[in-house]
Amino acid sequence: MTVNTLAIIGTGIMGMGIAQIAAQAGIQVLLFDAKAGAAEQGRQSLQTMLEKLAAKGKFTDEQLQSTLTNLTVIEDLTQIVKAELVIEAIIENLEIKQQLFKQLESIVSAETILATNTSSLAVTTIASDCAHPERVAGFHFFNPVPLMKIVEVIPGISTRASVVETLKELAKRMGHLGVVAKDTPGFIVNHGGRAYGTEALKILGEGVASFEDIDRILREGAGFRMGPFELLDLTGIDVSHPVMESIYNQFYHEDRYRPHPLTRQMLMGKKLGRKVGEGFYQYKDGQKLTANTSKSSLFEASFSKTRSDAAITSVWIGADLAEDKQQLVDYLNYKDVTIDDNDKPNPDSLVLLAIYGEDTTNAAIRYQVNPKQAVAIDMLTDLSKHRTLMPSIVTQDNFVAQAYALFGKSSDEGSNVAVDATLITESTGFVAQRVIAMVINLGCDIAMQGIASSEDIDNAVKLGLGYPYGPISWGNELGSQRILLILERIYGLTGDQRYRPSLWLQRRAKLGISLFTQQSHY
């Protein structure tokens, strides 16, 4: 079916965003809202915004007028009868959505597709009271719709294949990528995004680092557009925490999706984020206020007299991967630092451990070195952008100061880019290793469950969440064997089921093949 006319029910931010891209694609859009005057208000707000964009040269006058001509406000719901597609974008309430769909069925023809923009409710359940559930599907956009070039197409248990194809083609026509997902909790994006925030919250809860430092490591070192706590503040705890709990409960308390009590406490205390001026951060006039209270800032202050000129006798390197050791050797040679190449480190050598999935104490025992001399460094992230250092609980201050002198922000003077280091307390897997490995592992598990193709998972998560890579391609980029090593060690040390490696990841890592590889069929 070719969609020439569609109706939008609900003219809030999401509804008007969908209306905008549809009208720009030359589709006639009927706007309806149960609240009197809301549809006209939505159209006027969109017109004002588009006129401002046109004034900046984003649209020609002809494109502006064409788009506005394609938007028609209707006051009577029966006027949707000529639409080939109706998209519902109302409140996330199952009973209200079910009532609306039954009402829509009494108006439209038997061939009209009924789509829901739900982000958290089961499409099958929404369609369960419909006379024709085969023409009902999910069509889930992301805010802001014109900029987020992804839409999830979700067939319910009875949805016709032709409906899915029509919605995919329509998404393409509107400039978006349509990815098909099974009707499971969170679909692809909200499901795949669980690892980022929940693991960061667990790291914070363990006292590994402050929320500022966790944000800094993941933003500057790992390349995420926003730190997880900045993102939680932006989205709003009142939005994020219920989604965490909903997905956790819908998957029958699967450990990978376990929420953290802190966000429940913040919800109860009404520290909801940017919208109320306080969440993890504090805000004034919508702008984040910076407080110089992070662990690394306190460390830098306490070692201000010693970190930059700490006497470094020599450095002994223990590395899990040969390429990591070579990178550190090259860096130390560049810094003109003596390398201790003895089988066992000298008593006055800084012991530098490039490890995966362990804390410094366990690594020191494995390498049979003195933990009082040991500082671990995370080699998973780009050292040219940020460094994470992790002493053991007994590492002597002079060795911590030496490590900071080598890798802190004053260490690369003359460089065009300021590079900082963050000091964390002991953690199985640092900060970035844990979060990235969990993101990749969850993406692999979604692929194994057959919720979507590995390519669609990759594209949906990257476009829908703004990650540097999709989870599947990120695993290939960093090396699936390395990600598997991180997870196996964390799982072995903690016994926490949330870290168990996905079988999809395990098989492909052990075979040394791409994480995109599908099962062969005979």
UniProtKB/TrEMBL annotation:
A molecular function GO annotation: (3S)-3-hydroxyacyl-CoA dehydrogenase (NAD+) activity
Listed GO biological process terms: fatty acid metabolic process
Protein's recorded name: 3-hydroxyacyl-CoA dehydrogenase
Enzyme class (EC, first level): oxidoreductase
Native species: Psychrobacter arcticus (strain DSM 17307 / VKM B-2377 / 273-4)
EC number assigned by the record: 1.1.1.35
NCBIfam families hit by this protein: PRK08268.1 (NF006124)
Residue span, 3-hydroxyacyl-CoA dehydrogenase NAD binding domain: 6-184
Keyword set includes Oxidoreductase: yes
Highest taxon of the lineage: Bacteria
Chain ranges of the 3-hydroxyacyl-CoA dehydrogenase C-terminal domain: 186-283, 429-512
Keywords, alphabetical: NAD, Oxidoreductase
